[in-house]
From TrEMBL:
InterPro entries for this protein: ThsB__TIR-like_domain, ThsB_TIR-like_sf
Domain Thoeris protein ThsB TIR-like: 8-106
Gene3D superfamilies: 3.40.50.11200
Annotated protein name in UniProt: Thoeris protein ThsB TIR-like domain-containing protein
Length: 166
């Protein structure tokens, strides 16, 4: 089994690239407490690669990941070619899932891809402090819930957000 220490981020590459780049910027900024050990830094695929080659590369990245982050934008639930496949693969691998709502919602909403309706996950807003908190804490909570055969959607309380001044 591969050593899993990376964070795999899935997103709509056409619509939500700016949000993904913001994650990278937060991680690179020494003044922001945010660490993204990005699985996409392992090796890149060329846009001209076949779908099969790209998926093989993405699966290799997932195999080295300890957490799956899904950036949920306006069109995410309608994406099937790669994003849905990435979600299906994360579920099969049993990766802890963090849903990051780009619309500011703290809970899952109508933009959540239907495949995640009954899955174990935590939802957060797109803010560095709460996302960093989720990256550091959700994998252990996910493990506990799975051990007890629990599923469902979890959220941080308003008091957790308040602790971060959010």
């Amino acid at each position: 089994m591969a050593y899993r220490n990376k964070v795999y981020v899935a997103f709509d590459g056409d619509e939500d690239m700016a949000a993904y780049r913001t994650l990278q910027m937060w991680s690179a900024n020494e003044n922001i407490d945010f660490d993204l050990n990005n699985a996409h830094d392992l090796k890149s695929s060329r846009d001209s690669s076949s779908e099969e080659t790209i998926k093989r590369s993405l699966r290799e990245r997932m195999n080295n990941s300890k957490t799956f982050v899904l950036l949920v934008g306006e069109k995410t639930k309608n994406l099937y070619k790669f994003v849905r496949w990435e979600i299906e693969t994360a579920i099969k691998l049993g990766l802890p899932i963090i849903v990051v709502n780009l619309n500011g919602n703290r809970k899952t909403d109508q933009l959540l891809p239907p495949i995640l309706r009954d899955e174990l996950l935590i939802a957060t807003t797109f803010q560095s402090k709460i996302l960093n908190y989720a990256l550091n804490n959700w994998p252990e909570s996910d493990k506990k819930y799975r051990k007890n055969n629990q599923s469902g959607h979890y959220y941080y309380s308003d008091s957790v957000y308040e602790d971060f001044g959010l």
